[in-house]
């Protein structure tokens, strides 16, 4: 045994004591921390959350996690009695036909469903006022020279202006020579357009007021849970248009808000029209036909009953289509390629207030 080992052996009992003590303290801590309230409480909160987050967990389809849903109809002055009454009629029919779908009128802007009427003419007017203001205060002009006689100029396709950043205002010839033609191109920066005025109208973006869009329904989703919905109804210049017998367009939008998607369009014969009228009668047909769409089909009622009874009654048949997510478009309108706006034809894009291919 060498000196070093001997020394170690001598001190060994002391070190062993300290180590055993530390291990003991560590185990006690570990043991007691496992028995503290905190983790138990967390587990309880977690369990509680699971059971309160989704009242209708029996379904994996797109759905709201609670009933009744609160709704608010904003900008009543813009809506007019005709449109408001049709919307209320649709809400009432849906409540009466289903067993568990219920709506409660609210005065809060944080209601589940926000229905708002927008006077397109008034909003457009304030948009044009804003553009006029910018034409005076924030107009940018650039010169571009061409070495030939040029009659017209296309600023976006020629790449002079960027559609998403600059709004073309005008272009004019400044100097006109056979050898050198100078054009002055004026534009405003889209980032300069103030959103202050449109806030009064409760819409999100200037592009919502494009006179080509009559209305839309949008929803916020988290996974398969719908957490918010908004129906924008744009009042066209010639006034509201509603179906007299049945609130078809309002019911269509409401069913979108409840998660349903469109039915597929049958073949349209240019001479004989739709070859099969059954899908056209469906309330979720993408186009409005007041004379054909006069009820909400049983398959939607049954599916709503299934979801909102949490599986007690009804069933969702395969004939019922659900939305994936993203934008919901008004009757006869389709989501754009980026799924952010609505246009009159499928697969278009929405740029500077216009639907384009
Ligand atoms: Zn639709």
User: In angstroms, what separates the terminal alpha carbons?
Assistant: 92 Å
Percentage of residues in helical conformation? 25-40%
Backbone shape: elongated
Order of helices and strands: HHEEHEEHEEEHEEHEEHHEEEEE
The set of bound ligands, ions and cofactors reads: zinc ion
CATH architecture annotation name of the largest domain: 3-Layer(aba) Sandwich
Strand content: 15-25%
Looking at the structure, the CATH topology of the largest domain is Collagenase (Catalytic Domain)
- Poorly predicted regions are 1-11, 30-51
Number of strands: 16
Instruction: Determine Rg (CA atoms, Å).
Output: 32 Å
Largest pleated sheet: 7 strands, mixed
Helix/strand class: alpha/beta
pLDDT averaged over residues: 78
What number of domains?
2
Please tally the helical runs, counting DSSP H or I stretches of 4 or more residues. Answer: 8
Give the class-level CATH name of the largest domain. Answer: Alpha Beta
Q: CATH-wise, what's the superfamily of the largest domain?
A: Collagenase (Catalytic Domain)
Short characterization:
The protein has 357 residues and is an alpha/beta fold. Helices cover 33% and strands 23% of the residues. The protein has 8 helices and 16 strands.
